[in-house]
Known about the structure:
Helix content: 25-40%
CATH architecture of the largest domain: 3-Layer(aba) Sandwich
Pathway: Bacterial outer membrane biogenesis; LPS core biosynthesis
Oligomer: single chain
Main location: membrane
Transmembrane segments: 6-28
CATH superfamily of the largest domain: 3-Deoxy-D-manno-octulosonic-acid transferase, N-terminal domain
Number of helices: 16
Strand content: 15-25%
Largest sheet: 7 strands, parallel
Shape: globular
CATH topology of the largest domain: Rossmann fold
Distance between the termini: 23 Å
Radius of gyration: 22 Å
Site (Transition state stabilizer): 122, 198
Domain 3-deoxy-D-manno-octulosonic-acid transferase N-terminal: 37-199
Amino acid sequence: MKPFFLLYYILSVVLFLVALPLIIYLSFKSKYKKSIPSRFFLFNNSRFISKENIWFHVCSLGEARALKPIIELLKSEDIVITTITQTGFDEAKKYDKELRFLPYEMFLPFWITKQKVLVVLEAEFWYILFTLAKARGAKVILLNARISDKSVDKYLQFAWFYKKLLNCVEIVYAQSEVDKNRFLALGARNIEVVGNIKLAGEITKSKEYLKPDEELIIAGSTHESEEESIIKAFIEYKKSSNAKIVIVPRHPERFEIVYTLMQKYSKGSSLTLSRFSQDKKLSTDLILCDMMGELNNLYAIGDIAILGGAFRDDVGGHNPLEPAYFGCKIITGEHFFHQKELFKYVHHVQYVKSDYIHKALLKTKELPVSLVEQKIDLKPIIEKIEEIKNKVA
């Protein structure tokens, strides 16, 4: 065992012990009640049964969803998946593959089994994961790799560390030339720019809902503080337009908080309020979507999409491809740094501060719908994964 690996491992144990009270506290919250016991205590999280597979590791919902066209093109039964979040886990269950939460790093030496290829999506850079996967025979591939504008300085400050980590990587498929240059600065090798693989995903709806006669605004994937700005803008917009709004919080554990906020603004006004779970006809002015998996179904009947996650500076925005695909006019914030590559391909988007959402809503009347310009070809990536897998003994 190399000295640096041993030092890093000891540090991971120390951090675990220091954070243990917080970890236990968070494990009782609904958002983490499955992921934390699985990741930090290995509860119902045994090692993979099968070996010699293609192992995909993703973080959350968006990355898990992006796996779909890749898994379909591989046409292989020899696939296993790990994820970090509950939403990512729930999405990955749809692929009917062996699925686990990725344990915290200190458990990985006792948990990882030999696989042929490890494909890691986006920015999931775990030193022990990469080191052990390589040591046990897997070729490590970074797919859809990115380093955001917001985090690049932090990466460069620890370039010596990321060079060690990236030495374990066989090939990096970067989202853009900018990302390629950033990986080069960190010591990565064998880098190819392929674009964002989310452009290759099939966008579908699962249900058909009747569109109301009024203009329909979908506030999708919203976060704390964003809903209030959006509601205020809608109230002003409603004075001059016949419109309804559906608010779809990003995290289901916030449904009740957002509903209480909506009640606050509907009381003492002429605005009516309902929950989507109880009123799928969208008969009121304000509607809380309190159900998972409905966002695309709502975009499909929406006229305007206010895309959350970018009106505050700590989230990084959300995927604009879905509302654009369904022909919504998109309004979003200025802090979309995690989705910068995707927004390059989506036209007719308004980027505004939260105080200007009302003006942006008014401006939609003179703007065309948003649209997606480009697709990417996954076949060269698939061929490379299969080639590497077949070479591994």
